[in-house]
Design brief:
single chain, about 40% helix, alpha/beta, Rossmann fold
Length: about 230
């Protein structure tokens, strides 16, 4: 099993196979649309990866600019967006703490399964290191948003669980989101695989050997997952 950093730098195609199976019931888009109407919005996306959210949003918004720290991941995103025949998107390499767009230039800033890495990789788990990195990232979100704009952050609330079971190492981060004023809800984003073997393969690839074994033991061709949605408005 590669590390998460190795996945994002070297295994984008395999990662894309996994996320194509996620949220087979379409709950992510419905949750976003309940927070903010999408037509006419100019969007900036942080940590776009292989384009999971970008593909959902691009057909429904005025324009979207998608950024990620990995060119390897963005290559997959760009190819899939070109195949959709859309012209209202741009993509580029950037850190979540330094996005190359003008002040007050977006109606919606959204980040899916990415902002957490400012806490995970940004500094020590105790002390102020990781909090400082989160504050830098949030400062960038506030800089980019227009007055009345919306910020949405999506993060895991537990894979292999039918109700929220947030990872312990993200507890401080999730507490911080509440402290700075984010509201939250959660949805199911279950994976539906074509076969039990595909489920085992892809679950092992990203979530590890233990998850792969559990998938087989529980015959999880549909792998349950919970996702949290946090949002705030300027």
């Amino acid at each position: 099993m590669p590390t998460e950093k190795e996945v994002y730098e070297q295994h984008a195609d395999q990662y894309e196979r996994l996320i194509r199976r996620e949220d087979y019931e379409g709950n992510i888009l419905r949750a976003i649309e309940q927070i903010v109407p999408l037509p006419g919005l100019e969007v900036v996306e942080l940590g776009a990866g292989t384009g999971r959210l970008t593909r959902l949003l691009a057909p429904r918004v005025r324009a979207i600019r998608a950024f990620d720290g990995s060119r390897h991941m963005l290559d997959v995103a760009e190819e899939s967006l070109r195949q959709m025949g859309l012209a209202n998107w741009q993509a580029g390499v950037a850190d979540n703490r330094a996005i190359p767009v003008a002040d007050a230039s977006a109606d919606l800033v959204i980040s899916g399964w990415s902002f957490c890495y400012l806490a995970v990789w940004g500094g020590p788990s105790t002390g102020s290191g990781w909090l400082g990195e989160l504050e830098k990232g949030y400062g960038e979100i506030k800089r980019i948003l227009r007055p009345g704009g919306t910020a949405i952050i999506l993060e895991t609330m537990g894979t292999g669980h039918e109700s929220p079971h947030p990872p312990e190492h993200l507890a401080g981060y999730y507490g911080w989101l509440k402290e700075v004023g984010f509201q939250s809800t959660w949805i199911r984003t279950d994976y539906r695989f074509e076969s039990l073997e595909e489920a085992r393969e892809l679950a092992t690839f990203f979530f590890g050997e233990a998850m792969g074994r559990e998938v087989v033991e529980k015959n999880w061709q549909v792998l349950p997952e919970c996702t949290g949605a946090w949002w705030t408005k300027t």
